[in-house]
Amino acid sequence: MQRSKLLQMILLYPVFLLVSATILYPLAWMVYSSLKSDAAIFQDVFALPDSLFFGNYRTVFVEGGMGIYFRNSIVISVISVAGLLLLCALAAYALAQIDFKGKNALYLFILLGLMIPPQALIISGFKWIAVLKLVSSHWALIFTYFGWASFGIMVLRSFFQSIPKEIIDAARIDGAGHWQMLIRIMLPLARPSISTIAIFYFMWVWNDFIYPLVYMQDEAKYTVPLGIMFLNGRYRVQWGLQMAGLAVATIPPLLIYIIFQRQFIRGLLAGALKG
Amino acid sequence: MKTYPYAKGISPTLQVISLAILLTLLVTACSPTAPTQATQPPAATDPAQTGAVQGSGEVSLWTEFTAGGEAAGIEELINTWNGMNNGITINHRPIGNEEFFTVVRTALAGGVPPDVLQFEGYQQTREFAAAGQLEDITDLWNSVKDRFDLADAGEAACTFEGKVYCIPFTFVTGWQIFYNPDILAEHNIEVPTTMEEFLAAAETLKNAGVTPIALGNQAGWPGEHWWMGFLVQRCGVDTVYQAIRMEGASFTDECFVQSAADFQNLAQAGYLSPGAASDDYGLGQAVFESGQAAFFQTGAWYASGWNQPGQTPTPFEISIMPFPRFSDAANQEDVFGAITHVFAVPSGAANKEAALSVLEWLASEEAGNIWAKNGNASVIAGAVDNSAPQVIKDLYNNAKSADKSLPWIENELPPGVGEDKVYNGTVALITGAMTPEEFMQSIQEGLEAAQ
Amino acid sequence: MASSRLVHEPEATMPSGSAEARRTGFAYQARAWLLAAPFLAPALLFYILFMLVPMVGTLALGFTEWTGFNFADIRFVGFDNFAEMREDPIFWLSLRHNLVFLVGAITLKTLVALLLALALDQRIPFSNLFRGVFLMPTVISLVVVGIVFRLALSPSLGLVNPFFNAIGLPFLGGDWLGDPNRVLPVIILVDTWHGFGLYMFLFISRLVSISPELHEAAFVDGANLRQDIWHITLPLLKPTIAMVLLLAAIDSLKIFAHVYIMTRGGPSHASEVLSSWAYFQAFTANKVGYGNAILIVLLVITFILAYIQVTRFQPKEEY
Q: Smallest Cβ distance to C70: which of B131, B276, B279?
């Protein structure tokens, strides 16, 4: 055992390091480019900055008006993700554990929601939002994101199905009903899967720009990606500014990721012990 | 161990139920269209009001002016208007160019347009007007027309079936090449005045290991601009229009093929930056500004971009020369350039009366001067001469003195033909995927198919 | 909770022999539906109102001719748009590219995700750290990915070609996104870079719930690592693999953003896919009807794949 562990380390570390390098370098590049002036970027796009230049960040926050966009994005993302987790957990439980006719048909029907790219829906989607009188309301976005439940249902259903029968049967013998089963047994076990979908939903909602772009006609209702997008002029690309904007926009999803990644690992450990 | 039964297929009952649900939804999704038709307000307002400001309240204004001289200009315009305290306030929403058309389309179709809308004239005027989405402002235009330079070109950009739907605002010329004087000096090259001299300079630079031309043609239009420089001198504006209207000329005619061959020659001779087929416009610009290429062809907007306050200066003094012509070119007079910004009032505007007041003010000398002062080529007569920076003055007067000008050709071709056949064709000329004959053939076919 | 226990009663106490008969009964089904309804209703409400309504609207537009500026101008044309597709060489080219993406993504993305997940599952020192890093690309916005890779791959300003020069393999360099023969594989690679994390997440969440005793038992029986993975881990991962394959298939069929942000479908259609061509038709060429008809084709293909997967490859065993 000991020797094979050593062998594994010798074989795996180079692969791990290589993959890590391809992942970390672009991120680092984005960050250090944002600390260069445009002139310095033009000298050599990939060189490290000689001196730190914070002007780009000043522009992002002062002229870009990013403060209000941040608030909007956080409110929308938090409500949307919390709601999605609830909707997905409930629906996935029914699809995995309650035995009713037409389950597969319903599941396929729900999967339809994954199959069309979002930009394909904006013409009829906007018309519908206008009919509902939700134009420029954050609810238009939140409700639209609630409609993205298919992915979470898919992942949680698969997980709920994989929970060992013994655990379920033991709970039943103890007299647990469906609600108790979901809350006491399933959800704690599903912590890694829930963190996974929380991370991805947060990222998708946070980074989405097509729906805010079309549904929010009032600048005060804009979200971060729109703010970043409009930092650039039509025929004029300011590289440093763009990088600063992107770096600023990337931080919240990364933070969420780090927080949930802890949950994820804790869930992993719990799952491993119980499994 | 107990297993759960998994249905092997979808039961017929559920197939019927899901079909029923889908059909119900279809009906629900389509019915909202009815109210829009009913609520299309009739064009009741008489736009020919002059003098005192009509209307009140808030006017929403959408533009694609997000940065540089355009953003500074629109900001000053709005501040000036709002400072008049005349009961109308403008609420501006800038939208990035890439997304602009998508947003405008959904807003118009959804029945929630802004009160004043900026767009790019020509084909867009015709599309919006044909769909009944723009207010007819022929009377307003006639009352302000004599305040404008290039009034005929402006009117052409705004007319659909004999009626005028917008007022022109900016003229942009494509007839120039920006260059890096340091590189030319270093290799003892005089600023080229003919295309022969230009190609000789490019050859010298290439042999010295310097990229002659910076080009980022991923989107297809920067290459199209180069091709149009050749097209206008090989064929002339009138012939091009004959081909577009399919009256007396065809894109497969020799002068057209020649112009495409002229452009492809730049690629095959190795004069273009190595990423010409895949770099986007911003990367092409970065190649030029980083001092890695001698020439950069683009529209006059570029001149108002680099000297904005707060802009990092480039490491060299950017200079401008006219687009050089072959000494044997058939046409020595015409240029390409166009009205690029127009303002209109959508028919579904919520505050139409006030919107028309704003529109009329945008056609004033005051507004023109503010726009020009910020580095934009306003088409209000005298505005550029009175207020614009020297570089804009030179470009504008050069274009104004030309015989005729041709707008970017996708604006005059049927929707999609320019953006597909022309844009993709100029990329294909660079990669060698098409010959000049095939390029021209594809435009001609696209044009015929669209009829 | 008393009521739910009551509802649950029949199944828990049911003698297994008569289960089938009882389950097909109407009363049983009605009860099961009633039981499932409160769980399903909230998700379905939003799903139907805010996903399906726009979707059905979009699909309905596929049977019309419309420039997309005024709903009053819509004209129903039946199946004309589908007839037009037959004559459209770019449509067929795009379809072919979608299939390349399908095969490429399913093999590459799933394989990378699975192999790295299995490697991390060996819990060698620093595994947690590496896992944290590997999952990072998936939380980065696509806009960042597009800008960084476009710049890095650019033959004018990028660093990939200089890198190949530096390691003495200059012939490998080229115009990565501008060469019609390279552009598809390059986009698949970038898509893999950006997307494998999601699938790896899903694999890892399943891997850890496999009891360590199972592995220990296998090793006690003299199995080596390969046998352990092959006979213990992979069979247990099967449902997850099936789900990931379906997800990868759906993602690669509807692929849009990566293509749009890296190449716009270029150079001259060399990386055009169905959704980017549909987008061009609807939003640039003003043929909303035709564009949406292309989306219908895309949806039908995807749905058939999902149907096969869900009905044929459902796990019969629970774990």
A: B131
Closest CA to B73 of B53, B55, B44, B94: B94
Quick one: fold of B176-336+407-450?
D-Maltodextrin-Binding Protein; domain 2 (3.40.190)
One of 3.40.190.10, 3.10.290.10, 3.30.930.10, 3.30.70.100 is the CATH number of B57-171+338-406, namely: 3.40.190.10
What is the spatial distance between Cα C164 and Cα B273, in angstroms, rounded to a whole number?
19
Residue B382 in contact with partner chain A when CB distance is under 8 A: no
Which pLDDT does position A248 carry in this prediction? 84
Instruction: Mark yes or no for CB contact B109/A217 under 8 Å.
Output: no
* CA-closest candidate to residue C286, choices C73, C94, C51: C73
Structure tokens at A1: 């055992």
- Is the Cβ pair A90, C43 closer than 8 Å? yes
Assign 3-state DSSP to chain C and report helix, strand, coil percentages, each to 5: 75, 0, 25
pLDDT in tens, C31-77: 888 888 999 999 999 999 999 999 999 999 999 999 889 888 899 99
ipTM above 0.85, yes or no: yes
Nearest-5° angle of CA A110, CA A116, CA A119?
Answer: 130
Q: Could you read off the pLDDT of C208-254 as tens digits, one per residue? A: 777 777 888 888 888 788 888 888 888 888 888 988 998 899 989 98
Residues of C in contact with A45 (CB under 8 A): 151, 157-159
Q: Shortest Cα distance from C136 to chain B (angstroms)?
A: 27
Q: Is C24 within a domain? A: no
C132:A261 CB<8 A: yes
Check if A129 contacts B (Cβ < 8 Å).
yes
User: Which residues in chain B have their CB less than 8 angstroms from residue C60's CB?
Assistant: 26, 29-30
Please check whether residue C38 lies inside any domain of the structure: no
pLDDT digit string, tens, across residues B2-45: 333 333 333 444 444 444 444 443 333 333 333 333 333 433 34
Within a 13 Å sphere around the CA of C19, how many CA atoms are in the beta-carbon half? 13
**Which of B26-30, B214-218, B287-291, B306-310 is least confident?**
B26-30
CB proximity B36 to C under 8 Å: yes
- The reply to whether A226 falls in a domain is yes
Cα separation values, B182 from A185, B28, C272, Å: 73, 66, 41
Instruction: List chain B domain ranges.
Output: 57-171+338-406, 176-336+407-450
Q: What is the CATH number of the domain that holds C82?
A: 1.10.3720.10
C-alpha dihedral sign at B49, B53, B55, B60: positive
Which residue among C20, C156, C264 sits closest to B287, beta carbon to beta carbon?
C156
